Amino acid sequence: MCLITFAYQQHPEYSLIMVANRDEFYARPTLDMHFWKDHPNVLAGKDLQQNGTWLGINKNGKLAAVTNFRDGTSIESNVKSRGALTRRFLTKETPAKTYLQELATDSSPYGGFNLLLGDTTGLYYCSNKGAPSERIAPGVYGLSNAYLDSSWPKVDAAKQGLVELIKRELSIESLANLLHSKHQAADKDLPNTGISYEWEKQLSACFINIPSYGTRATTVLLQKNSGETQIAEFRFNPSGKVSEERFTLLMKPIG
């Protein structure tokens, strides 16, 4: 997952509004969002290479999403999959606060990550790249491959677009389109994450579409104050949109 924007307790009807793009190599095997057979309360996609997920919810009121922390100057080897972090949270009964405490003392070598967790007590953020764990206050946020709310062009654009949508009538379609811009940032505004200029430029778009790598899914989540939750997944390959699926379920409200 490489770009997420969300509004927490910023709308009179929807306590949580989230839109997220998953960017990945097209060749990496994946299962679309579904209720997992071994954990029927969990609704998420699945990475078949490591059996984790990039974003998911469960009916007991949990949400988890992860992005990688991009640092081209650091060589990571023999690290555990970031998707294991989300899978473990969604499939266990551990509350978010306790889970964060466990992660703080976990010496397992994970790849650089940003982790969003939600349960009935609130929304939380943590990273293994130096940012302190925190409970997220009501507001509008953006997250890509640096710390929460780092001012990257696509993060700022996504947040501003969400603020504007909240003022109008929300829909699954309008929220999905929010992250479908292929506009690339000006050279002077590109972040410096230690990778080549060519990659930095191509990855600066909200929606990425290059021959071997790109945005493979856009996920939209709308949760009402009552806990009624709509979630939709739009799927893409190098040629464009290939399918979509929508779910509506009643779960314990996050926060």
**Gyration radius, in Å:** 17 Å
What structural class do you assign from the helix and strand content? alpha+beta
Domain count? 1
Helical residue percent?
10-25%
Supply the CATH superfamily name: Penicillin V Acylase, Chain A
**In sequence order, what are the helices and strands, one letter per element?**
EEEEEEHHEEEEHHHEEEE
Instruction: State the low-pLDDT regions, or none.
Output: none
Residues in β-strands, percent = 35-45%
CATH class: Alpha Beta
Record field, number of beta strands: 14
Kindly report how far apart the N and C termini lie. 22 Å
Mean pLDDT: 95
| Total helical elements | 5
The name of the CATH topology is Penicillin V Acylase, Chain A
What global shape is seen? Answer: globular
For the sheet with most strands, the description reads:
7 strands, antiparallel
CATH architecture classification name: 4-Layer Sandwich
Features:
38% strand, 255 residues, seven-stranded antiparallel beta sheet, 17% helix, 5 helices, globular, Penicillin V Acylase, Chain A, alpha+beta, single chain
What does this molecule look like?
This protein has about 260 residues and is α+β, with helices and mostly antiparallel strands. The chain has helices spanning about 85-90, 95-105, 155-165, 170-175, 195-200; strands spanning about 5-10, 15-25, 30-35, 40-45, 55-60, 60-70, 115-120, 120-125, 135, 140-145, 210, 215-225, 230-235, 240-250. The protein has one domain (about 5-250): Penicillin V Acylase, Chain A (4-Layer Sandwich). Strands 1, 2, 10, 11, 12, 13 and 14 form a seven-stranded antiparallel beta sheet that branches. It has a seven-stranded antiparallel beta sheet with strand order 3-4-5-6-7-8-9, with helices on one face. The longest helix has 14 residues, at about 155-165. The radius of gyration is 17 Å and the shape is globular. The two termini are about 20 Å apart.
